[in-house]
Amino acid sequence: MRRGLFGKLAVQNIRNNRSTYIPYMLTCIFCIAMMYMMEFLRDCPTLEKAVPQASEVRLIVGTGEVVVGIFCVIFLIYSNSFLMKRRQKEIGLYNILGLEKGHIGKVMFLETIMTSLLSLAAGIGFGILGSKLSLLLLFRFLHVPAVLGFYVSITGILFCIAGFGGIFLVILALNLTRVRMNNPVELLKGGNTGEREPRAKWLMAFLSVICLGVGYYLAVTTESPIQAIFIFLLAVILVMAGTYLLFTAGSIVILKLLRKNKKFYYKTSNFISVSGMIYRMKQNAAGLASICILSTGVLLLLSMTVSLYFGMGDIMVNRYPFDTDAQISGISQEQSEQFQKVFAQAIEDYQVPAEKTVTETYLEIGCKQGKNGIMIGQAYSYSEDGNSVDLYTIRQSEYEKLTGEKTDLHDSEIFAWYPSERETDTLKIDDWDFAVKKWLEKAPLSAMTNLVSNMAAIVVTDSDFEYIDGLRTKMYEGLDAYEAGKDLTVHLGVDIRGSSEEKIRYGQAVYQALKDYCHSDGFSENTIVIGGVRQSEYETYYVDNGSILFIGIFLGALFLMGTAMIIYYKQISEGYEDQGRFQIMQKVGMSRREVKGAIRRQILLVFFIPLVMAMVHISMAFPLIRRLLLLFGMANTKLYVGCTAGTVLAFALVYGLIYSMTARSYYKIVEKA
């Protein structure tokens, strides 16, 4: 062999196959740049200076980096399979002309070296250029001031070279194995082989309906946010399986049913579209299902992260109803009164410009929601079956102090707030039927901000209060728990006038006074103070939610790129396979206009079905995602609806743009016929 021949062949092959090589290399460059930027953020010393909770940010970014790495491995191998399919005839021709498989392997090795080096150099270069922008974007989301300076991550460069070098070696090994396993004749036919018309697999189509139906049912009917954590993964698996089965088998069943409808099928445009889609639907199904799953992933990621970020105000109010908010649990009535005095004294001593204060004492019990009422008589875990209910019991004297309303309750009479039970005249608690003298329109305590479990509140006489406290004590009998009368909770809150700095300064002084008093003599080691100063907690939550939004945007961009490339490769693949068929159609009498119209209808139908299905998935997932967001303290459904609608609209526009750009390649290929 003449020296340098293999190198020239490698360069010529890349040039001749630029319509597939260039998108493949752009994908590699994008993935490498993304990976470098994420590794840069983990390695960057500037992060430590600007963000006190830098370790949390690095943990979240590191988690996102793992997802990016897994996606890159799968997607680059997937993209390479399209590239190699287009080149099978070319490789077979080399074999026929006298090149041995070892020679072809050398050419492919050189091609891999060239494309890998170019991709790594360009990817790392763009990553370095974009790293500062990504850092500024992250600081923006974290609400911290930008820090000047420029830093190149050597760790990021070495990580990308090692990681993607390994991926490229795996891709090379797969390509060489494919060449070695096939004979020249098979390779020559590889580019022209089409799928036989698939049979209508009714069982698989039925399974697709079952999987989707069960997944949707779980998403719609799951009530408990705690249950939603466990149900989410199962629902995702079922919907993914159902989506692949629907595109693989269900689509063929539907198309064949359409073909049996003679009035619909025997029209020129419908005949061409339906028959064309049936002929290769098995081949198209995996790609279309992948587009649908990736599109759903993009929409879910972005809608959730954007909602969490812009719902920060609501989340913080749910966590901290007042500027300074404290709940002290595991105390007696006397100790509650002592804490209230300490609270009032701290406000006076520090001359806090208080706008509003609250002090409320109650008994909170985790109960089970039964068919006949509320069950206290057994210890209950929130995660069991979603039937938990937090019962807040308030003395009538406490309620009168909070509201200024006279109750005039007698034993066995209550005021009640229980959203799931409002039509009855009685409320059963364990074996006792309480007469509901009045159903309250809203929760009687400002402390009732638990979004995870169901809540109920009752206002009772002192005698009934002690009876219910006795049931709680009996429930925990034999366990290390509080005695009756010593498991009360007092909620103390104050809204403060002034700037953010003043709210933090005054609030921390009051909160620290409560904590110091709790650590003094006379309190059980189980007595705890939870809460904080809302304004000072924003920083921590911006770190968490800002980092999550940043990763959501990164992963959304990556998944969107994956969607775009799958669409592009499908358009190219479809174009070459349709070229001969539409040439035949023109020869049998169809006009060029009819052929182009048939093309447009077919690709519109094929490539917009995944988007429609993704929107259906998002709609059905809405109730489940809304409950998951409650775990983060996000209860603003209108905001989530708006964020989801905006995300879907923006994605649909981008999807349409991707389609219109890739469709041009399809038209050019087919119109050469």
Descriptive keywords:
single chain; 673 residues; alpha+beta; ten-stranded mixed β-sheet; 11% strand; elongated
What is the topological layout?
Elements: H1 5-16, H2 18-43, H3 45-50, H4 54-86, H5 88-96, H6 101-142, H7 154-181, H8 184-190, H9 202-221, H10 225-260, H11 262-265, H12 268-279, H13 281-310, H14 312-319, E1 324-331, H15 333-349, E2 354-370, E3 373-375, E4 388-395, H16 396-403, E5 413-417, E6 426-429, E7 432-439, E8 454-460, H17 462-475, E9 488-496, H18 500-518, E10 528-533, H19 534-587, H20 592-630, H21 637-671
Parallel strand pairs: 4-8, 5-7
Antiparallel strand pairs: 1-9, 1-10, 2-3, 2-4, 2-9, 5-8, 6-7
Helix pairs in contact: 1-6, 2-4, 2-6, 2-7, 2-19, 4-7, 4-19, 5-8, 6-7, 6-19, 9-10, 9-20, 10-12, 10-13, 10-20, 12-20, 13-19, 13-20, 13-21, 14-19, 15-18, 19-20, 19-21, 20-21
